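Q: Okay, next protein. This is Chemotaxis protein CheW from Pseudomonas silesiensis. I've checked the sequence twice, so it should be correct. Can you predict the 3D structure?
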Amino acid sequence: MNAADTFSLTHEDAQAIDDCWNRIGIHGDKSCPLLSEHIHCRNCAVYSAAATRLLDRYALQQEDRGQVSTVAESEVKTRSLLMFRLGEEWLGLATRSLVEVAPMQAIHSLPHQRSRALLGVANVRGALVACLSLVELLGLDGTGSVASGTRVMPRMLIIAAHGGPVVVPVDEVDGIHAIDENILEAASRSGTQASAKYTRGVLPFKGRSLRWLDEEQLLSAVTRSLT
């Protein structure tokens, strides 16, 4: 599921929920009698119940789509990878490690940070999420440039790490692509990955050399950076 599908899903479900916070709450005319007690709608049980209902619907539909996707992938023997760029290097990460591709947000630094890879925290829908540098974790040169006149839009990847979601900023996202398992197997057997951190192999993609990341090793490194 791509970002557009996710937005469409949550938008359709949201239409079935009474968004009183937008009518009479903090984002509306502020006539709600509970507003004086709770100060902000996010502190109200009505708002919390609506959010829980929406998330429950999302989880159920996500699970249904995931089952369909698994069957389809097993038939054609492909694996879904998210392709993104850091500096001049293109990388691929298995979509099973990905929660969401989000717009770039402000990163707030933390005092006395223990890890060089920890950039700080970012606000993701009201929750503070740890923000890490993949450039630092992978030992990359993140100062590369793109061709003149090319429009790029930096993004943040929300990744499902072992201790909870983390955010990593990237310079550009190409999209999610299904890659033939035979190509991936050949890349993993080539031995090219031996000299690169947390890498399973290097494969050709759209005229580029794409570095296929080992998600298990990467997620373990992410966890270590947060402890």
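A: Here is a summary of the prediction. The two ends are 31 Å apart (CA to CA). The helical segments are 3-14, 20-23, 35-38, 45-76, 134-138, 181-189, 215-225.
Q: Noted. On to the next one.
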